Amino acid sequence: MSMILKHPSDRGGSRSQPFERLAENASRFTSSAMFFGICLILVAVAVTLHVIGLPITWLLFMGEAMSAVTLLLVALLKNSELRAERAVERKLDAIAAALLEGQEGSGPGEAHQKLRSALGREENS
User: Fold this and answer.
1) Does this model's pTM top 0.70?
2) CA 10 to CA 1: how far, in whole Å?
3) Going by fewer Cβ within 10 Å, which terminus of the chain is more open, N or C?
4) Mapping DSSP to helix (H, G, I), strand (E, B) and coil, where does residue 21 land?
5) Taking a C-beta distance cutoff of 8 angstroms, is the pair 100, 109 a contact?
6) Strands (E), the chain
7) When comparing pLDDT for 117 and 96, which is higher?
8) Residues 26, 77: contact at Cβ < 8 Å?
9) Are 120 and 92 in contact (CB under 8 A)?
10) CA–CA dist 121, 110 (Å, integer)
11) Which pLDDT score is estimated for 1?
């Protein structure tokens, strides 16, 4: 149960889970011109349904379908946003620790390893 409540970047392991891969792919697709075109077509279809006077059940179905897709996209995109935010935080923490370690004159140590690890995780995801 605690695994479900943890943030994806806190679960450990460098291998991404199916949901994280799905969220990342959804984020890439929804930021594309193709997705924008699909949205324009859906809105045009919804307007056309209103104009031609289809029964209210069809209009409700179209509205509910668009609402459901919106809800799913919000969940997927929020996951991608949080993972990116955590990756930036990890890198900034590692950079700050490495700078502090360098100022103390102790040379490359644990902070440098954490920085390398944080940079490697982002390349693998």
Assistant:
1) no
2) 14
3) N
4) helix
5) no
6) none
7) 96
8) yes
9) no
10) 16
11) 45
